[in-house]
Automatic annotation (TrEMBL):
This is WD40-repeat-containing domain protein. PROSITE patterns: WD_REPEATS_1, WD_REPEATS_2, WD_REPEATS_REGION. Belongs to the WD repeat WDR3/UTP12 family. CDD domains: WD40. It comes from Jimgerdemannia flammicorona. InterPro entries: SSU_processome_Utp12 (IPR007148), TBC1_cilium_biogenesis (IPR051570), WD40/YVTN_repeat-like_dom_sf (IPR015943), WD40_PAC1 (IPR020472), WD40_repeat_CS (IPR019775), WD40_repeat_dom_sf (IPR036322), WD40_rpt (IPR001680). One of its GO terms (biological process) is maturation of SSU-rRNA. WD repeats lie at residues 240-281, 360-394, 395-427, 437-469. Residues 612-657 form the Small-subunit processome Utp12 domain. Keywords: Repeat, WD repeat. One of its GO terms (cellular component) is small-subunit processome. GO terms for molecular function: snoRNA binding.
Amino acid sequence: MPKRSITLYGPIPRHSKDRIVTIQFHPSGKFLGCQASDRTVELYRIRTHDEIRKKMARRQKRQKEKAEKRAKAVLAGGANGGVAMDAPADAPADADAEIRAGDEITQYQIIRTKTKVRSFDFAPVADVEKAGSVQILMSLNSNVLEVYNAALPSKKKSDEMPEPTKMYSVDLQGHRSDVRTLALSSDDELLCSASNTRNLTMRAFTLHITEYLDPQVILGTKAGELELYDIASSSLLEMIKAHEGPVWSLQVRPDKRGLVTGSADKDIKFWDFDMVEEEANRPKRLTLVHMRTLKMSDDVLCVRYSPDQNLIAVSLLDATVKVFYHDTLKFFLSLYGHKVNIWLITISSFRFRGLIPLPVLSMDISSDSTLLATSSADKNVKLWGLDFGDCHKSIFAHQESVMAVQFVWGTHYFFTVGKDRVVKYWDGDKFENIMKLDGHHGEVWALAIAKHGSFVVSGSHDRSIRVWERTEEQLFLEEEREKELEELYETTLSNQLEKTDLQDGEGTEVASAGKQTMETLKAGERIMEALDTGDEDKGAWEDYELLKSRGLNPAPPQRSPILAALGDVPADKYVLNTVEKIRANDLEEALLVLPFSKVISLIGYVDAWAKKTHHHQIVSNRMMRPMLDSIRFHLREQLKRHKDTMGYNLAALRYMRRDWENRNLAEFWDEDTQKEKEKDSAKRKFVTVTV
């Protein structure tokens, strides 16, 4: 029978009938929490050894009393003339003395919540007697955090156990849908985020683009309105009807005296900040004054100022980026290049390939106003020079659409986010990826960077906002590339190595189903390492025996540290133990990983294993003689056939050489043969040297 590492201890009764989601022990080891898929978390208490002994003594006493009652009833029935039945034998003492799971773990409390529980955790307090209670932090499906307090069990049975009480609750709902846009204050102390529904952190409302102007926040909505909110009071100050279509882009001017908005109504509007006094004896408040409008030929998707405020870049739905002078609004550059290859199929089944232009979804200008970075759904990021409008580089940045791009102030480094759930950090001068930030569970839509790149904020479709802080640790690009290659290898290995090359038709041999995975590759590497260790040890001992046979007295070879640590096991035993540890379903694919030289070495060990384990049975068994004769005959036939083939090929090559020498005046030059001759002559020279 194989040894079992895990044995059944026993069942524990539960109150809830739903499936278990999470089981967790308290840091003190005295309590156990069990989360079900409903709205409950059941708490269990771990009894001490004294409590278990007392419980078992009470159980044995009850069983003894029941046995005595049954015996008296049987005797009374026999005395009254009834049919006397044999008294049932008492349960064995060992069965009574066995500790069950229910004896050690008992139900303690049940915590019920208003909505389903997503996860829970105990407070990191090991000394619960000193704390006087057990605290549990619970995360609910309604995006609420609650802390419950469960009193310790009373030593007196007469005292009733109080129900768990809710101590704290963090009920700020946050975003109920994906986070679409982010904005940081000018001092990087406040963060504003907006979602696709009427929800905004710090109690704001429907919006698409946000920008801070301390201490107010300006929002552009899909209704074409600009909403101005006061941060301190979380109140709406003013609502301005700015566009006839959705406001897709908004940015404050570098001089902080106004802003620009772009909309689906094909208009770009420029606004100035002004102070207005609504009522007497009340402080003035901020408002917006419309100054001028720039008409475009298509929907405006993104608008960006150059930091020196000389240029303004506009992304249009027609897949172009127009660059204008800010002061005169005269046209300067037109950038075009984001495309995707696509097959178009007509009704007549004619198929042709075409390039479909894609609009720029996001763009940003470097702090020195020399580089413009654009991103699109073609998964690429393009870097443009703002002096002549030339494309410096087109970078394949993400596996899905690139949703946002932004430069780090004072550098040409920039960050990108995409629908592939990844945040990436790039060098805009060397056009290489510096690092990749994984963590989001959904498409990443929004990006915000601190003034000098001390931290980065990303918002995702998974309704989470992640803050990435810059550390002082050194980063080596070679190591990052190696990590990416390893991850790529692991993720694509299963798809690439699946056995899907079977073809229909006669003569197709159906092999066993299987595929190479990281486990099979690691198993193959372990076999190769074991073979190297065994061959090294085996070769050392063979040299030792050879020297002894020549009459020399060599020192015994030093064993491998691995073999010595395992108790000086022989080399063939070590290789056998390594192969035995590999799972049977992985062994075939692991052997296919081995190179031919290792296969020869492994066959030598297989021969040694067979001689040690089954040599006598093979020699004494008559039934195996025809099989061994057949193997010998076929092996010799195959060797003879290969020998004849090689001899025929060598004769043909010699004939071709003689024919070439007869037809040509130059001497035939064989580099390998010449090297062998030089080695032989060098060896002969070394031998003939006398001292």
